[in-house]
Amino acid sequence: MSHPSLYPVSAKASARTHITDDVYQQMYRQSIEQPDAFWAEQGKRLDWITPYSKIKDTSFELGKVKVNWYSDGSLNASYNCLDRHLKSRAEQVAFYWEGDEPGVQKTVTYQQLYDQVCRLANGMKSLGIKKGDRVTIYLPMIPEAAVALLACARIGAVHSVVFAGFSPDALGSRIVDCDSKLVITSDQALRGSRATHLKDNTDAALGHLGSASPVQNVIVVKHVGKNIDFHPSRDVWYHELVASQSNSCEPEPMNAEDPLFILYTSGSTGKPKGVLHTTGGYLVYAAMTHQYVFDYHDGDIYWCAADVGWVTGHSYIIYGPLANGASSVMFEGVPTYPSVKRIAQIVDKYQVNILYTAPTAIRALMAHGDSPVAGADLSSLKTLGSVGEPINPEAWNWYYEKVGLSQCPIVDTWWQTETGGILITPLPGATALKPGSATRPFFGVKPAIVDNEGHQLAGVAEGNLVILDSWPGQMRTLYGDHDRFEQTYFSTYPGVYFTGDGAKRDEDGYYWLTGRVDDVLNISGHRLGTAEIESCLVAHDAIAEAAVVGYPHEIKGQGIYVYVTPRVGVEPSDELTKAIRAWVREEISPIATPDLVQWAPAGLPKTRSGKIMRRILRKIAANEHDQLGDISTLADPSVVEILVNNRLNRK
Ligand code: ATP
Ligand code: MG
């Protein structure tokens, strides 16, 4: 079936939008030409304790990199997410919490959230936590996770959230790296009815660290109600700690450049990096992007289906939506439990207007045909969002037609843990959409494409994506390692921020992310992005998901090694393999024809956030599976073993 390659802004979207295309053009120009005036105005979306007079004070010069925004202002992030809303929104729901099991649910109003945050903030103070101390949060998607982040922000403690799916070792190394005094966890977590033993994992992590553990206390939320080992000298029950605390706690005045949080990147490309974000610029940027990118309006029901363990959860479940006084759905479970209909059921149940999820979830549902949406209404939806990986046009179209009923713009948002918020994205009422393209830069963002020597390419171009100047949500440093920060992001192409991603720019100035630069293939001298071949593969009826990597090839330099997961009900065969090679040859070009096609019915190796780990697949393809590197962020190691056993290159 053929689909349009351009979707003009719909009448429905332009009728409701904050930002039309004219407004986008005019605001974008101002944001680039007069950044101080532009961001001075945007800063007013927050309540400040001390008003700012300085706005932008930044440099990308190697050896002298600095990123300061609003640096003589002071504010408190939790005040901006809670206190200032109470006059008008005390009884408004902040979170509709939907548990792992259907029927298990809870609502939390702004007043209740405020009370809980103050109690926990006071409780943390009673344990000796002060401004600047680091606190590791290892919690499932439960309201207490939001409470914990905001309670840290309230007293000026720096939170470091570790995704609840991580192992004791991954947790331990993150605790040590940022020297956390306190861990907040729960007895267990539930996802898709499977329990993760968070408290046991915490005990194991701290046990392994022994006397090297910086942790003085562990606060334990009783969530599932299972028995745990309790160390009375160290462990504190959450409910007991907060019971005796007052529900009022003065927010700590924070300089705009005081740290708000540390968050480790998802580790797709190697050892995770401890990204540090500060308070003022981050919050301005999170609130602004949440409003404009999703075209959020007061009264909308908003659902970001990410986990609070990722930056998407920080910026678009907690800080952005709460700064804007939004009502959000918070979901504990997974899209496929108890059935593939769960996402559609939650949308209908809460009449969700804005849904933000990841290509990995969309592809997982799409593999089941229409059944994930069969019988659902879905007419409440107005805007759909995607984040985390390039979204293949095939998945885009499925999302657009089956979930959005061909009426909702999809915002394909490109950004990183490092960028704090969305940098390249359509705006629902302003941008004509092209499936697979993240389209245009957000306000204040100056992307460019450079060749491998760092020369900027004009017009239609393909190469390495860099950002030329700072924006308020940008990371400030890697925690405890400013040198690695400069080396990682500013040394490859001096004077600009290097994203690590490849991109194309088309004749309309739209950006298309082509995958990690490290993953780009060079076949007989032709550069091929992995994203393009993968999109072609998943457009084939038999294929649910695909990953493409290069491997050493005697004649071509690099050969194309393809891993494919069949759709539900499809049996791999030699004939199908042939058909798939022919399909890619037809659809793209003979150069792109896969040399080796390995079926992966058990799935592909992914990070815990659902991204395909091509670096591991590259090692298997090169027959170097004894050198897999850091696999601590891998979701399911058994998948790797199966792929290694069935590998096609044994030379
Ligand atoms: P690490 O840096 O540790 O390897 P990571 O890059 O996966 O991990 P994140 O910060 O969570 O960690 O992910 C950011 C990356 O995700 C981007 O650099 C890009 O490669 C990819 N990405 C995110 N959104 C999109 C998108 N809309 N289109 C294409 N790629 C995207
Ligand atoms: Mg990265």
Instruction: Kindly provide the name of the CATH class of the domain at 107-255.
Output: Alpha Beta
Q: Categorize the overall geometry.
A: globular
* N/C terminus separation: 40 Å
Strand order of the largest sheet: 12-11-8-6-7-14-15-24
Query: In the CATH hierarchy, what is the architecture of the domain at 107-255 at level 2?
Result: 3-Layer(aba) Sandwich
Mean pLDDT: 95
Number of helices: 20
User: Which regions contain 5 or more consecutive residues with pLDDT less than 50?
Assistant: none
Radius of gyration: 24 Å
How many individual β-strands? 31
Strand content: 15-25%
What CATH calls the topology of the domain at 107-255 is Rossmann fold
What small-molecule ligands were found? Answer: adenosine-5'-triphosphate, magnesium ion
Structural class: alpha/beta
- What percentage of residues falls in helices of 4 or more residues? 25-40%
Q: Can you summarize the main beta sheet?
A: 8 strands, mixed
Output the keywords.
651 residues; alpha/beta; Rossmann fold; GMP Synthetase, Chain A, domain 3; eight-stranded mixed β-sheet; seven-stranded mixed β-sheet; 20 helices; 31 strands; 22% strand; globular; binds adenosine-5'-triphosphate; binds magnesium ion
Describe, in plain words, how this protein is organized in 3D:
This protein is of the alpha/beta class and 651 residues long. Among the domains are: 107-255, Rossmann fold (3-Layer(aba) Sandwich); 524-646, 2-Layer Sandwich (GMP Synthetase, Chain A, domain 3). Strands 12-11-8-6-7-14-15-24 form an eight-stranded mixed sheet, with helices on both faces. It has a seven-stranded mixed sheet with strand order 5-4-17-16-18-19-20, with helices on both faces. Helix 2 crosses helix 3. The longest helix has 17 residues, at 110-126. Magnesium ion (MG) is lined by residues 265, 269, 416, 500. Its cofactor is Mg(2+). ATP binds at residues 388-390, 412-417, 501, 516, 527. The modification N6-acetyllysine is found at residue 611. This is Acetyl-coenzyme A synthetase.
